[in-house]
Amino acid sequence: MNFFSIFKLTIPVLMGYIPLGMAFGLLLSNLMIPWYYAFFMSAFIFAGAGQFLLLALFATQATILEIAVATFLLNLRHTFYGLSLISTLKDFSWKKHYIIFGLTDETFALLKTAQIDDKDREKVYLTITALNQFYWILGSVLGAILGQALPFNYKGIEFSLTALFIVLSIELYKKSKLHKPFLIAVIIGFVGMVSFPGDKMLILSLGLCAMVLILFKKALNDTR
Amino acid sequence: MIQDNYIVAGIAIAAIMTYLTRIMPFLFFRKKEPNKTVKYIEYNMPVMIMVVLVFYALKDVTWEVYPYGMAEIISIMVTIFLHLRFQNALLSIFAATLTYMVLVQEVF
Fold first, then answer.
1. Would you state the pLDDT for residue B93?
2. Which chain B residues are closer than 8 Å to A73 by Cβ?
């Protein structure tokens, strides 16, 4: 597979990452964070929803512990991706660590769906991951610079975070076989929003979700 | 203004935690298969986390005073409607954000 045909595979991600990265960059500059932090975040974290969440946590001056727990829980879904790649990546060289580092939702989707010959699988996987990260960095830095350079009223742009979470909730709900966890999370989330102290809302609600999930495993597994 | 060293520390910890979630299965399940409970949690937790994050993102809305979170409610309905109708994540996010920006800047 030559570079151009790999590039063609990544075009859908390009179309998604540039605008979404720009929204992230705009939001970042709206918080008065210098543009180069957009670069560092996209280079070292490389997680769409995770980076948006980090901005929300920065805005509320969350503690480092809260950042750690919230980021971990939000990105826990990536563990699921790794699980289904263990056997594929087993024969790769040390370079596989970059693929593991760059295992975003979109990269995973591409890796799992692309038709690739086994002999150049490693090269194709690496190129896909690197291209995707390049688009993401490009988009976020562009957005951050644009936000700093263009004095425009960006008030309300933070809703992109809420909308992103809503869209991902719908997508995940459609994919899951069980419906009760979704409903329980709506109830816990709502109760948490109106009654938990703001700075502990995320941790308390997520802890409660995990507890209900484990304690009522039998009842929840019983479909409908 | 947010402190520089706070941002750097935040980025560092977020980078470590994100990488951890991605490397974990390769560390723990190289030889043995994950058990049923682990699979069950990994399968069901993401949707719950996402839903809770929606409410988390809305926690600073003042529902009891004018405009009673109307901009948020309208924009949420726009997001859900567009996403169910067209299933295009970017379209839903951008149209909803634009709706919200117009509402908070021009209407309420």
1. 87
2. 45, 49
Looking at the structure, tell me whether residues B59 and B10 fall in a common domain.
no
Digit-coded pLDDT (tens) for A85-123: 887 888 889 999 999 999 988 888 788 777 888 888 999
Mean pLDDT, all residues of chain A: 88
State the residue range of the domain holding B41.
Answer: 36-107
Nearest-Cα distance to chain A for B82, in Å, is 10
Instruction: Determine the residue of chain A that is closest to B30 in CA distance.
Output: A86
My answer on whether B46 and B27 are in the same domain is no
Domain check: are B40 and B11 in the same one? Answer: no
A185 touches chain B (CB under 8 A): yes
DSSP string, B1-50: ---HHHHHHHHHHHHHHHHHHHHHHHHHSSSSPPPHHHHHHHHHHHHHHH
pLDDT in tens, B72-90: 999 999 999 999 999 988 8
Same domain, B41 and B86: yes
User: B87: alpha, beta or left, given left = phi > 0 and alpha = psi -120 to 50?
Assistant: left
Residue A177 burial (10 A CB sphere; 0-12, 13-18, 19+):
exposed
What are the domain boundaries of chain A? Answer: 3-159, 176-224
Q: Are residues B20 and B41 in the same domain?
A: no
What confidence tens digit (pLDDT) does each residue in A61-74 have? 889 998 998 899 88
Q: For the whole prediction, is pTM greater than 0.95?
A: no
Whether residues B22 and A101 touch (CB distance < 8 A) is answered with: yes
